[in-house]
Amino acid sequence: MYENEQVLAAFRLYSQLSRDGQADTASMRQYLSNDMLRGLVDQFVQEVDCTIIPAGDKLYLVPIAVASPFHVKNATLKKEYLSAKAKNIDLYLMYVAILVLFGEFYDSYHSQNITRDFITMFNWLESVDARIQALKEHDQEALLKLDAEYDFNWSQLVEKWDAIDDLRESSRQQDGRTNSRLGFLSQVQNFLIQQGLITELGNQEITLTEKAKTIVQRYYMDTQYNRGILEFLSSLENRKEGA
Prior knowledge:
Blueprint: H1 4-20, E1 22-23, H2 25-33, H3 35-46, E2 50-55, E3 58-63, H4 74-80, H5 88-103, E4 119-120, H6 121-135, H7 140-150, H8 154-163, H9 181-194, E5 198-202, E6 205-208, H10 210-220, H11 223-226, H12 229-242
Helix pairs in contact: 1-3, 2-3, 5-8, 6-8, 6-9, 6-12
C-alpha cells in the first residue's frame, strides 16, 4: 500500500515527464534514490507503453511501442518535419538516414563504443549515399526479395534517393526547404534536434546527446526493435568497403 503523498509525488513527476518529455536534475535524483517513487512512476509509464531513461543530468520519457500516445505519428512527421508532398517512402528514407547517422558514431552496428565526437552533414550524406549505391548493385528481383525479407521498401528507397535533385549538393546554404539530398538530411536533422537526440556544434557539425547514447545502448542494437535492418546495413557497409 502506498501513502497518499507518495502517489501524488509520483504522479507529479509522471505529469512533468508526460508534459515536457523530460525532468530536471532534482527530479532525476529523487527518482533514482527513492525506490517507492520509482516503482510507481515506472508503473505509470508502462501503462502508456513508455520507459524512463536517465541520461546526463535529466530523466527522459521515451515511447517503446507504436501504440504509445507519446509515439510520434507518421502524419505528424510528414506535416511538421518533412516537405508538404512527403509520402511514406520519405519516412523509410528518414529512418535509414537516422540509423546510418547513429551507426557512424560507433565502430560497428553491434558495439556500444563511441569512436567519434562529431560528424559533418556532408560525411553523413556520403555515408547514406554509399549504402544506397551498394543497394543499387542488387537487381530489381533481388531488391524485391529483400523488401519481403525485411518488410522494408528497399527498392522504392533507391528510386526515391535517385529522384531527389542532387545538382545543388555543393551549396552550403541549404536547409529543409531545399530539394536536394542534403536538404532532406537537414529535415531529418531538425527532427533529431527537436527530439533531443543530436546537438549542432556549428560548421555543419553535429554530435549525439547523452539521451541518444543511452537509447542506442538500450535499444539500437536490439534485433527486437531494428528487425535485422542493422545487420543488413552493416552488410552494405562491408560491401562498400570491399568494392
